[in-house]
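Below is our example:
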Amino acid sequence: ADESVAVARELGGAELLGISRAIRALILMQVRPAGDPEVLAAAEEAAATVGAVEGWWATVSRCLLAYAVLGAGDPYRVRDILMDAGGDGDLSRVQPSMRPNFFELLVTAALATGDVADAERWASQALALADRLGLPVQRGAA
């Protein structure tokens, strides 16, 4: 992951560097203890790298920050991040095949804050989209 960040830095472009940093943050999330501040710092750096760029990789980089934020114990911020990056309650800026995963994250965050109604709404959206897509992994996430 560190090598991909170095290569992306050499090649230039905020989106490539941002998604490389976001993937690095996801890897850190898997190998570091829960709540490790380096994970959140890496994900924040990835989102900051893409800034307000509107491309697909930039949107994913901003959305992936929500995983690190939840891992850091801030479920309220997860919703704000995904609504901002996703554009709306349908996450219309996010590629459809990725939406069920982010809806699942919204469900987890809503349950963590005690908002069962929102959790049910996000779960329904995830399930409906996953069924429409017909992709088993997304159905599993829903």
About this structure: The longest helix spans residues 14-31. The chain has two domains: 1-73, 76-142. Residues 76-142 form one domain.
